[in-house]
Amino acid sequence: MDDNPMLQKVKKRLADWKTSHAVTGPGGKFMSFEQNKAAFDEQCSPGEFKSSAVMRALEVRSNLEQEFPSFVKSLVRSHVASLFWMGLPGAFCKSYLPARDSTMTLEDEAGRHFQVKYIAHKTGLSAGWRQFSAAHKLLEGDVLVFQLVGPTKFKPTYHPF
């Protein structure tokens, strides 16, 4: 079966693609295709490319204190316009956030606090998110690293697109 010319052609294309899409991880080391794909699948929506902002955010995240869980979120239109709904990773919410609706605090890099409503069954932030988004002039394509530093407190860091 390995002698099949069509199969060999497909394997060569895949190998060429893997080489041309090499990505460096923290410390400048090249990540394997599998490592890159795992990071990409974990951090990006289907069809989304890894912008330089995402790469910077992933590097920042890798240097955060490991005792505090964190995740990276690329902003889309619904996060910063019209709906102002910030969906959070479901697995993260189930592992680390309250099982009931709660008021969360977002503490920005300047030390300002913003109160937002966490809706547990929808795993996202609602009321108050608009004020945070407007205060930081967040745009579609920007990236945030959310670090959970208390039961209901995040320290998001901003990485412009």
TrEMBL record:
User: CDD domains per the record?
Assistant: B3_DNA
Which range is the signal sequence, renumbered to this chain? none
Question: Which SMART domains does the UniProt entry name for this protein?
Answer: B3 (SM01019)
What is the superkingdom listed in this entry's lineage? Answer: Eukaryota
Q: By what name is this protein known?
A: B3 domain-containing protein
In what residue span(s) does the TF-B3 domain sit?
71-161
Q: Which Pfam families match?
A: B3
Per UniProt, subcellular location reads as: Nucleus
Q: Which key words tag this protein in UniProt? A: DNA-binding, Nucleus, Transcription, Transcription regulation
Cellular component, GO, one term: nucleus
